[in-house]
Amino acid sequence: MNTSSSIPPTNKNEAQGIARPLANYHPTVWGEFFIHLLASENQIDHAQVQQRVEMLKEEVRTMFSMSSTAYDGRRVEEEMNLVDALQRLGLAYHFEEEISEDLARIHGSQMMGVSENLHVVSLRFRLLRQGA
Q1: Total number of domains constituting the chain
Q2: Structural domain contains residue 127
Q3: Which alpha helices (H) appear in 21-115, and where do they start and end?
Q4: Per the database record, which ranges form the Terpene synthase N-terminal domain (predicted)?
Q5: Which end of the chain has the smaller Cβ count within 10 Å, N or C?
């Protein structure tokens, strides 16, 4: 039983046996970059990456502890900028304790001389509003 004759051809060229030439595309400017990227991605040492992440977390915790030792108007501004940067980067969940302690200190601090800066005032307002 021949099944090929019972199936109709899908287009006229196939029925006549004419082979269409393939399009002659220019080579990509990327070459085999992405193929090699996939191969190198498998060679990443995840333990080394995790170690680097932990080292960077400790560095940020050190930044928090340094800013809490000497507390003046400039330090308050630096702390607020640090908290703001961590929130904007989406990393604040790693440092929730430190951020809540800093927000409590910022809330209780007197911002003499720094309150003239509109950016600092608005940043303080936003951080304290979001932290509550």
Answers
A1: 1
A2: yes
A3: 33-41, 46-69, 73-89, 96-108
A4: 29-130
A5: N
